[in-house]
Amino acid sequence: MLPTIEWRDDRVIMIDQRKLPGEEVYVECRDFEDVAEAIEKMVIRGAPAIGVAAAFGVALGFLRVERSKDSRAEFSRILTRLRRTRPTARNLFWALERMTAAHQENQGLPLDELKKRLIAEALDIEQEDVEINRQIGQFGAELIKDGDSILTHCNAGGLATAAYGTALGVIRAAFEQGKKIRVFADETRPFLQGARLTAWELEKLGIPYFVISDSMAGWLMRKAEIDLAIVGADRITPNGDTANKIGTYSVAVLAKENHISFYVAAPLSTFDFSLETGDQIPIEERPPEEVKEINGKLITPAGARVRNPAFDVTPAGYITAIITEKGVIRPPYEKTLADLRK
């Protein structure tokens, strides 16, 4: 698999996910503004990958600071810009908090050394994400039986993380264990992350799959062609309410109606302990063109009014379990999560 994002020669290189699966093109970011725009424009997406990108963006921006006396103000300016990019993805803010802590802890160092420490912290965040995803995969694979058909929504694979994946990492781990599985990938309108990105990854990995339109999932569940559903997450509150790509809530309701397990796979960094319930999660509204156009071609009347919330919130009651790097937690989530964090 190609790397999603990497630090190379004081540049941030990332695969342009807007171009997949037709073209495998890389974007080079030379400053933090480039990184911010890449996050906003969906060059890179997926909560863990956005977190890594934000950390790299801070390190890249701070490399351009020339005088120690300007460092605090410049650091604050970089943070402010990156915070504005994607409001729902918790990992973005978690990574910025990590970078802020590293900046504060090393304030007494010479400017050049402080720059090195920030780069090292960003690289640590990247490498930790790879290992965390593999741990999620191992715990989650235990929930998959040989012969299972698995529905996934949006893309939560290597493209959505530093590598390996969360929801798709679970599927990948089960496949690597020799389990004979197949995947149903919802196309995931309007940005088609399932049809374009999940299918591209599954093709590369050699995992059998079908692409289906979002509206087909319920009928296939009803026909007993789907055994379980696994999705990723962009933000989770301590009670288990989960924000993920728009359409996830519908999948969860259909799964419950058809007595199918519905799992969320996410690192602990995706949990937002400052909130109590999913009603408090900010939901990003994206440009109407994403709904009105496909590959730049208008598919609605030019004057059509559009709503385009990028995420929805699935209440905890629809979630069978949440798969983390420290194990699988089940309801009541507040208690099992507290036990896990001890």
How would you describe what is shown here?
The mean pLDDT is 96. The chain is built from 11 helices and 15 strands. β1 and β2 form a beta hairpin. By secondary structure, the chain is of the alpha/beta class. The strands form 4 sheets. A 7-stranded mixed beta sheet has the order 6-5-4-7-10-14-15. It has 2 domains: 5-134, translation initiation factor eif-2b, domain 1 (Four Helix Bundle (Hemerythrin (Met), subunit A)), CATH 1.20.120.420; 138-341, Translation initiation factor eif-2b, domain 2 (Rossmann fold), CATH 3.40.50.10470.
Topology:
Elements: E1 5-8, E2 11-15, E3 26-29, H1 32-40, H2 47-63, H3 71-83, H4 90-105, H5 111-141, E4 149-152, H6 167-176, E5 182-186, H7 193-205, E6 209-212, H8 217-222, E7 228-231, E8 235-236, E9 242-245, H9 248-257, E10 261-265, H10 289-292, E11 293-294, E12 297-298, E13 311-314, E14 321-324, E15 327-329, H11 333-341
Parallel strand pairs: 4-5, 4-7, 5-6, 7-10, 10-14
Antiparallel strand pairs: 1-2, 2-3, 8-9, 9-13, 11-12, 14-15
Helix pairs in contact: 1-2, 2-3, 2-4, 2-5, 3-4, 4-5, 5-6
